[in-house]
Write a structure and sequence with these properties.
heterotrimer, A mainly alpha (308), B alpha/beta (243), C mainly alpha (314), B: 243 residues, alpha/beta, Rossmann fold, 2 domains, globular, C: 314 residues, two-stranded antiparallel ribbon, 4 strands, 75% helix, binds adenosine-5'-diphosphate, binds magnesium ion
């Protein structure tokens, strides 16, 4: 393939990565923004979403679409409830002390990951996409006959991949509406601003925290459900999303939601594009070093405003 | 008699966003003096002394210690030149013993000489009356004793300039009397810059008073002059008497 | 007895006990103990930074790996003798920790944890990227013939134990000395109240940098020792898991106590050894222990002992 079509494919793959990443990183960002908690187990909630999606699709098994829809509803719900329980049983008990929270969520990471290994096993398992029509994409070239439209072999995508992008946009828009237009969103933002003040005004801060922690995990799980038909469920699949989400949240400015989305698009697209043209390992090395440097020299994030 | 100046500032300014906490302050402190810094809450006293010892970075202006420009020095270097500082909000090593709190202050100067360190720690604890509690955990002390411990940590540094930010706040009547005696006993050893709300303490200890208001120096003078200054009465003493 | 005397007696006693164990324990456990001692050196290095200075790093595997590859690569490609290669392992760890410390110490709190994590991840990926030389995840074996030093065959169980014990004893004594020195006390002061330490005239940044470097070099010594004594270097040792393990060992044994790391490492080693004979998901144990520790015993085993019985433990 020529550079042009190749680039287009890379951008499409990048857009899918970006969509999933936006959901996952948004979960991490909300939890950090509202609770000031760094959830190291976030990637495992993502993995759990994918694994539960496999179970649900497998149990329902009548029609791929039915199983998928059930998974898309159930997996985030179950993961959210589990996360809220973890918040109540662990994080709330240690008063969200930063060091102990990190240690506690690292423990949670291993508990979830290794329990999955014991039950789900070490194999990667696929989930059928609900629909998967192949869509070819046209390209143009200046040949002997002047300008012409061609259909290069291999230049195409599937309806499901487009759906992933669409679904992510819908979920994020819904989230945005909840955050800005509803009382729940108002309570969350008030708690984020100043939890002591919120408590004084009668906000049940503990309950809000449990909800937020659950919501953050549910967003990761939703991203994972969307991704399993493309990627398969595996007990170690949480590592990369965790790292990428960290990168996104840091570049976007810790706790800034619009920053998170913009950074997710930027990182997702460039990750997709770079890994088509360069060694993915080299791309990751550069990305992690850039993130470290951003934290060192611009802790408010590349997109954040300097705040003395 | 031309007194030696130990510390001075020119044009010292601090603004927090829009709030100008200190505005263009020129200030001189003669060596050996006990100077009190008074003024209503929010006048900018803590900000001012914070900039003197380098804890707070100045927006503009210069600080001279011993005739040298120290404006560019970080806090720990200024402290090493012979400045000690106590926080307005008590700041001690709560998890360590009282002995260790004071020893940390001594060791920074004396380093490895452990016999001399022990001697100095014992001397300081004796002087402030905390000897019999030396092995107690600092965090377990009463509030008043914690404040005294913080003063002890200042003494342990044998500073040439001792800056105290509202040291008597929260002390009991008898403790305040002891504090006054302590400050007086330091006369001749160190220059003292004392932020103080308790006018009784100010009148009994200070040689000279500087009054802050709205981030500027409102008046300077001997205790007598300040007591008779109408502007000061309006801005500060008046309100204090009303209260 | 003064506290200093007690402490000297304790540290000498631990080393004597370890010598005695060599004669008492069956061969299998002597082998395990050699491994535990080397890993405990790693944990002691970690403890200086986390337990005494109050800095939680999530990237110490980078220093461990720097020592490991500093030794392994120079033996592999330049045929250095073990002692010189060990030295180059230490130098590698020194350089890496100085650079990481210099940069990461501009941040604090959560940002410090993430920055160290990111640097370590970049280091791990770099090892993979140069897989042609490092052999990546698969790693490489350091041949028995090369692991002979001054006629001392480090692959023999006795020699190996002696070497491990020597490394441990040097580092153990060093740590005991450091934490009771004025320097070590000022690290504790920084951990307890950084602002106050600064306003007593301590150069906080410089102290922390020194702590990162000493901690990093000791971790590197453990990595180099591990590669030399067990004849293998691989990228697994640079993964996040190997940054988290010393945290786990130190938390379990007792952060900020000199004997904590040894206790924690030994305990966890046998716990994982035992559970991996039952299930492949042996890291589940690590997870459960971490959560239980944060919830119920943030001081760790030696920390609880210090709190309840022996307040003089350094
Ligand atoms: N960190 C800060 N950020 C913003 N404003 C501050 C800060 N510290 C002090 N201020 C403001 O500066 C002014 C002077 O404060 P301060 O020096 O503490 O006064 P004083 O010690 O005389 O009571 C006050 O208006 C206070 O609100
Ligand atoms: Mg004040």
């Amino acid at each position: 393939m020529d550079f042009g079509p190749h680039f287009l494919i890379a951008s499409l793959e990048g857009a899918i990565t970006a969509a999933i990443l936006a959901l996952t990183a948004m979960g991490l960002s909300i939890v950090f923004g509202v609770m000031r908690v760094v959830n190291v187990a976030h990637g495992e909630f993502y993995m759990l979403g994918a694994v539960i999606a496999w179970w649900v699709a497998h149990l329902i098994g009548i029609h791929p679409a039915l199983g998928f829809v059930a998974a898309l509803l159930l997996a985030p719900l179950l993961v959210g409830v589990l996360a809220a329980a973890a918040d109540k049983l662990i994080l709330q008990k240690i008063g969200y002390d930063p060091d102990r929270t990190i240690v506690g969520t690292i423990g949670l990471l291993y508990i979830i990951q290794q329990s999955t290994l014991m039950t789900f096993g070490p194999d990667a398992r696929p989930v059928q996409p609900p629909f998967n029509t192949r869509l070819s994409i046209p390209w143009f070239e200046f040949g002997d006959n002047g300008f012409e439209i061609i259909w290069p072999w291999g230049l195409g995508t599937t309806s499901y991949k487009l759906f992933v992008i669409f679904a992510a946009i819908v979920i994020l828009t819904g989230l945005w509406a909840v955050m800005t237009r509803t009382k729940i969103g108002l309570i969350m933002r008030a708690t984020q601003q100043d939890n002591e003040m919120a408590r004084a005004f009668g906000v049940p801060v503990e309950r809000v925290y449990a909800w937020v922690f659950g919501l953050g995990a549910a967003l990761a799980a939703a991203g994972a459900v969307l991704v399993v038909p493309i990627q398969q469920a595996h007990y170690l699949m949480g590592g990369d999303p965790l790292l990428l989400s960290f990168i996104v949240v840091i570049i976007g400015g810790l706790g800034s939601l619009p920053g998170t989305v913009i950074a997710a698009i930027f990182i997702g697209m460039s990750d997709g594009i770079i890994s088509v043209f360069f060694s993915p390992t080299l791309a990751k090395i550069i990305a992690t070093l850039v993130v470290a440097m951003v934290l060192v020299f611009r802790p408010q994030g590349l997109l954040g405003k300097a705040n003395p | 008699m031309a007194a030696v100046t130990i510390l001075s500032t020119t044009g010292l300014t601090k603004s927090y966003g829009g709030v100008v906490a200190n505005n263009d302050i020129d200030f001189t402190l003669p060596a050996g003096q006990i100077m009190a810094l008074i003024g209503p809450n929010g006048a900018g006293k803590s900000t001012f002394v914070g900039m003197l010892c380098g804890r707070i970075s100045a927006t503009a202006g210069k600080v001279y210690f011993d005739g040298e420009d120290v404006s560019h020095l970080p806090a720990h270097k200024r402290i090493s030149l012979g400045i000690a500082y106590t926080f307005q909000i008590t700041s001690i090593f709560a998890g360590l013993s009282i002995h260790e709190n004071v020893a940390l202050a001594v060791r920074r100067r004396l380093g490895n000489a452990s016999a001399q360190v022990e001697e100095k720690v014992a001397e300081v604890l004796e002087r402030v009356g905390l000897s019999d509690r030396a092995q107690q955990r600092a965090g377990d002390l009463s509030y008043g004793h914690q404040r005294i411990l913080e003063i002890a940590m200042g003494l342990a540094q044998e500073p040439r300039l001792f800056i105290l930010d509202e040291p008597t706040q929260g002390l009991a009547e008898t403790e305040i009397e002891e504090f006054i005696a302590l400050v007086k006993s330091l006369a001749g050893e160190a220059t003292i810059l004392l932020i103080e709300h308790n006018m009784d303490v100010v009148m009994k200890t200070a040689d000279y008073i500087t009054v802050f208001n709205f981030g500027e120096i409102l008046a300077e003078g001997t205790p007598m002059e300040i007591r008779d200054n109408e502007a000061v009465q309006a801005a500060y003493l008046g309100t204090a008497q009303d209260a | 007895m003064t506290d200093t005397r007690r402490s000297q007696a304790l540290h000498a006693g631990v080393i004597l006990l370890l010598i005695a164990l060599f004669f008492v324990l069956p061969a299998y456990h002597v082998g395990n103990l050699a491994r535990i001692l080397v890993l405990a050196v790693y944990a002691m290095g970690y403890n200086l930074l986390f337990g005494y200075t109050g800095l939680l790093s999530l990237g110490h595997a980078l220093f461990f790996a720097a020592g490991m590859y500093g030794l392994g690569m120079t033996m592999q490609f330049f045929d250095l003798d073990p002692a010189t290669a060990f030295g180059s392992g230490l130098i590698a760890a020194l350089v890496v920790s100085a650079v990481v410390g210099f940069l990461a110490l501009r941040t604090s709190g959560v940002a410090f944890m993430i920055v160290t994590l990111m640097f370590a991840q970049a280091g791990y990926l770099t090892i993979l990227y140069f897989g042609e030389y490092t052999r990546g995840d698969e790693g490489f074996v350091i041949q028995q013939a090369e692991r002979v030093f001054a006629g001392f065959d480090l692959t023999g169980p006795t020699e190996r134990y002696v070497a491990a014990l020597l490394l441990f004893s040097v580092c153990f004594s060093l740590i005991a000395y450091i934490v009771q020195s004025p320097f070590g006390r000022s690290l504790v002061a920084i951990r307890e109240n950084e602002e106050r330490a600064k306003m007593l005239g301590y150069d906080v940044v410089r102290h922390k940098l020194k702590a990162v470097i000493i901690s990093g070099v000791m971790s590197g010594a453990a990595g180099a020792g591990y590669a030399l004594l067990f004849g293998y270097a691989g990228a697994t040792f640079a993964t996040v898991q190997y940054s988290i393990l010393p945290l786990l060992w130190v938390l379990l044994g007792g952060a900020g106590v000199t004997i904590g790391p040894l206790i924690g490492t030994a305990f966890m080693f046998y716990l994982i050894d035992y559970s991996s004979s039952i299930t492949t998901a042996y890291m589940l144990v690590a997870g459960v222990v971490l959560v239980l520790l944060t919830l119920f015993a943030p001081q760790g085993l030696a920390g609880e002992i210090r709190k309840r019985a022996l307040p003089w433990l350094p």
